[in-house]
Amino acid sequence: MPVLECRGLTKRFGRTAALDEVSLAIEPGRIVGLLGPNGSGKTTLIKLANGLLTPDGGYIAVCGAAPGRESHGLVSYLPERTAIPTWMTARQLLDFYGDFYQDFRRDAAEEMLDHLNIRPAQAIKQMSKGTREKVQLIMVMSRAAKLYLLDEPIGGVDPATRDYILSTIIGNYNPEAAVVISTHLIADVEKVLDEVIFISQGRVALQSTVDDIREEKGMSVDALFREVFKC
Amino acid sequence: MQWQFSNDAPIYTQLIQQVKVGIVTGAFPPGERLPSVRDMATEAGVNPNTMQRALAELERDGLVYSQRTTGRFVTEDNTMINQAKRSLAQRHVKTFLEAMLRLGFQREEIIDLITQEFGKEDGTHAGA
Question: B33 with B18: CB under 8 angstroms?
């Protein structure tokens, strides 16, 4: 069964269709790049998948069921903007996640925080922007979820932090789960992905594996993206 | 191990080449156990499935072998490692020759240039 499946999925904001008849399936064990220019519908798709938005048409399912209360237990979501309570300390945040999510692997989170030299007593608000993003990613990746939805996890952070984030994603790889990474920084994530989905103006323009693209076109996904979305 | 990737070839084929280089140069010594797929993928910064695919291919070629419970090991067969070394070298020579021919050099000129370059290297060694 696909971890995430959409058929004819449509979402409108007023008269504009943010997503227009999108059909796709994401299988377990896959790390998938959701790639498209700004405003192409990446965030809308992610929000539909975790139930923050409801579709105007078509079908969407996480592990076979419509997004809702049940699926929240299966989906681990990293929003575009950091959304962890800043007044908490790192330790309180661990407690908070532990209370909320049965699948939270506290040991894993503690180990990763320790690796970054973040003390449990340190308050989130005392941390730099980059550190906060790392902390939130650690929380998200420390859940034993079936579907990870990461909305622009590497936007707006320095290259070293970017490497850290990507290696955290690889290090937490689970063959039973799928990871969806939305981004327009393709060159940086390309090597980490199995598959890419290009979305353009609310439609799926291409779904393929990274190595098929490189093999067939003799170019990187980044180069292909630049060609497809040339302004 | 230094992992480097170019943009014009599939990632798994580049991984195969680089693990081969690692085996030939002794970064992964004969008979030694390879790190787990996940660790190798993390180190190379690549997708674990892609690393798995590359290692499976190396296994098919016989350069590495699996032991069901303990993991993957580098072959102890030196003939096989030497063969891999030779085929890596041949690839380098081929690329080099293609570039030289494109520049308009003839066979003799190329050999002369190589001999000269070797002479220079010997000179530096003698000087030092």
Answer: no
